[in-house]
């Protein structure tokens, strides 16, 4: 076998190994996320906060625990025991606690939150809006997180109070 073919074979094998490693890493992350979503869904159903679930999202906002570590929340979308559309917000590290409930008819809609962000900051491009929690003065406040590119080409997150529509926090990355 010539040197050229040997180098080509080694390069191809290295490429296959690297691809397998990347795929495996991504798959492990997806599996962990799905497991977390399934666990949050089951916790909220078991507690009776929701009677059915349509989807689960993860919120990784600016919240931290007392030791300074980031705290993620799951937003479990579904129907409450009265049949109303609701979102149960529960900390990923405290799934045994009662979630904070956001009854969708009792606050501003996702579209209204996007309109508030658009009116105040005129984003270049909107990416997504999802429900989350801001911890303020010992309280957990349901918020809409609106993510967009601002006029300076920065990723920006507006946190808008679900109940009042007031802008509570802006994070720029």
Can you describe this structure in just a few lines?
The protein is 33% helix and 36% strand. The protein contains two helices and eight strands, in the order H-E-E-E-E-H-E-E-E-E. Strands 1-2-3-4 form a four-stranded antiparallel beta sheet, covered by helices on one side.
Task: List the keywords.
Nuclear Transport Factor 2, Chain: A, 173 residues, 4-stranded antiparallel β-sheet, alpha+beta
Topology (SSEs and partners):
Elements: H1 3-47, E1 52-59, E2 73-79, E3 85-91, E4 100-103, H2 110-121, E5 125-136, E6 139-149, E7 155-161, E8 167-172
Antiparallel strand pairs: 1-2, 2-3, 3-4, 5-6, 6-7, 7-8
What would you say this structure looks like, in words?
This protein has 173 residues and is of the alpha+beta class. It has one domain: Nuclear Transport Factor 2, Chain: A, CATH 3.10.450. 33% of the residues lie in helices and 36% in strands. It has two helices and eight strands; from the N terminus they run αββββαββββ. The protein has helices at residues 3-47, 110-121, and strands spanning 52-59, 73-79, 85-91, 100-103, 125-136, 139-149, 155-161, 167-172. The strands form two sheets. The protein has a four-stranded antiparallel β-sheet, with helices on one face. Strands 5-6-7-8 form a four-stranded antiparallel β-sheet, with helices on one face. Strand 6 and strand 7 form a beta hairpin. Residues 29-33 have low confidence and may be disordered.
Q: How many beta-strand runs?
A: 8
Distance from first to last alpha carbon: 53 Å
Helix content: 25-40%
Overall geometry: extended
Number of helices: 2
Domain PepSY: 108-166
Pfam families: PepSY
Protein name: PepSY domain-containing protein
InterPro entries: Cystatin_sf, PepSY
């Amino acid at each position: 076998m010539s040197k050229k073919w040997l180098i080509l074979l080694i390069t191809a094998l290295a490429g296959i190994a690297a691809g397998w490693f990347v795929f495996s890493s991504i798959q492990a992350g997806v599996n962990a996320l799905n497991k977390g979503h399934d666990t949050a869904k089951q916790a909220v159903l078991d507690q009776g906060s929701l009677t059915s679930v349509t989807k689960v999202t993860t919120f990784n906002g600016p919240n931290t625990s007392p030791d300074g570590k980031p705290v993620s929340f799951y937003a479990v979308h579904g129907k409450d025991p009265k049949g109303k559309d609701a979102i149960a917000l529960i900390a990923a590290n405290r799934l045994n606690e009662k979630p904070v409930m956001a009854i969708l008819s009792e606050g501003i809609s996702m579209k209204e939150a996007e309109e508030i962000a658009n009116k105040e900051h005129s984003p270049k491009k909107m990416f997504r809006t999802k429900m989350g929690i801001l911890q303020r003065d010992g309280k957990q406040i349901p918020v809409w997180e609106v993510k967009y590119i601002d006029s300076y080409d920065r990723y920006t997150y507006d946190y808008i109070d679900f109940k009042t529509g007031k802008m509570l926090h802006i994070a720029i990355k």
